[in-house]
Backbone:
C-alpha cells in the first residue's frame, strides 16, 4: 500500500501482524530503547525496524540498527533518508538515497474516527470546512483521520530538513480525492511558517498522496530536490 504513494526511487517495505518481521531480533542499542515497553509496543518497534532493515538491503546498504535522534526522529545510515510508521497490526518503512529525494514522510493509521477532542486540537477552521464538504460527498470515509495522518507525514518530512518542531496548526492541508473506486487521492500542505531551504529555495508547501484500504489508511509526503 505504501509503495503506491511513493516514486520508484523509494524502497518501501510493509508488514501486517502475521508477517515474520514482527519477530525481528533487536540490536542491543535498540533493545535499550524498549527495555520497559509492553509486549505490543515492543513487537511494533521490532517489526518496523525489520521493514527498515529490509529496505536498506534493497538499496544496497548493510542492514543495521535504527535508533532515535532528537524528537524521536530515526537516525538513518549515511547516504539514506526515510520514514517509518506503525499502527495496530500494520507497519512500514520507506527509504531512499539522499541524492534522489530531499526528504519524505509516511504515516499509517486505523481507518476510524479520531478520538474525541483530537480533531479540534489539530484542525484549522478552513480544514474543518473542507472536510465537512468531503464528508457530505463520501460519509463512509473518515476524513478527520486522513487529515491527522497527513499532518504526521508533513512533520516527518519537515523535521529532517529543519531540525525544528512544526505544530499541527502550522500546515494547512487540502485533501483531493480521486473520482470513483477505493478512497485515494492527493494532498497539498501549505506551510504557514517559513519553510525549509532546499537547494537554495525556500519551500512554501509540500505535496503527497493518501489511500484507504482494508481498514488502514496511509499518507505520504515527498520533497524533491530543487
Residues:
Amino acid at each position: 500500500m505504501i509503495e503506491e504513494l511513493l516514486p520508484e526511487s523509494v524502497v518501501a517495505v510493509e508488514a501486517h501482524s502475521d508477517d515474520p518481521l514482527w519477530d525481528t531480533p533487536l540490536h542491543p542499542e535498540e533493545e535499550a530503547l524498549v527495555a520497559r515497553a509492553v509486549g505490543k509496543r515492543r513487537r511494533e518497534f521490532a517489526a518496523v525496524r525489520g521493514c527498515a532493515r529490509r529496505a536498506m538491503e534493497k538499496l544496497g546498504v548493510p542492514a543495521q540498527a535504527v535508533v532515535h535522534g532528537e524528537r524521536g526522529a530515526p537516525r538513518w545510515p549515511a547516504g539514506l533518508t526515510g520514514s517509518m510508521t506503525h499502527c495496530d497490526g500494520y507497519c512500514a518503512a520507506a527509504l531512499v538515497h539522499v541524492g534522489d529525494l530531499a526528504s519524505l514522510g509516511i504515516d499509517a493509521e486505523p481507518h476510524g474516527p479520531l478520538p474525541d477532542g483530537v480533531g479540534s486540537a489539530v484542525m484549522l477552521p478552513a480544514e474543518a470546512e473542507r472536510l465537512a464538504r468531503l464528508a457530505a460527498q463520501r460519509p463512509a470515509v473518515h476524513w478527520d483521520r486522513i487529515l491527522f495522518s497527513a499532518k504526521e507525514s508533513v512533520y516527518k518530512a519537515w523535521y529532517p530538513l529543519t531540525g525544528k518542531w512544526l505544530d499541527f496548526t502550522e500546515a494547512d492541508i487540502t485533501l483531493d480525492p480521486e473520482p470513483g473506486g477505493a478512497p485515494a487521492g492527493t494532498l497539498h500542505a501549505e506551510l504557514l511558517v517559513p519553510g525549509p531551504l532546499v537547494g537554495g529555495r525556500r519551500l512554501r508547501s509540500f505535496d503527497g498522496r493518501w489511500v484507504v484500504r482494508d481498514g488502514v489508511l496511509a499518507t505520504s509526503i515527498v520533497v524533491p530536490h530543487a
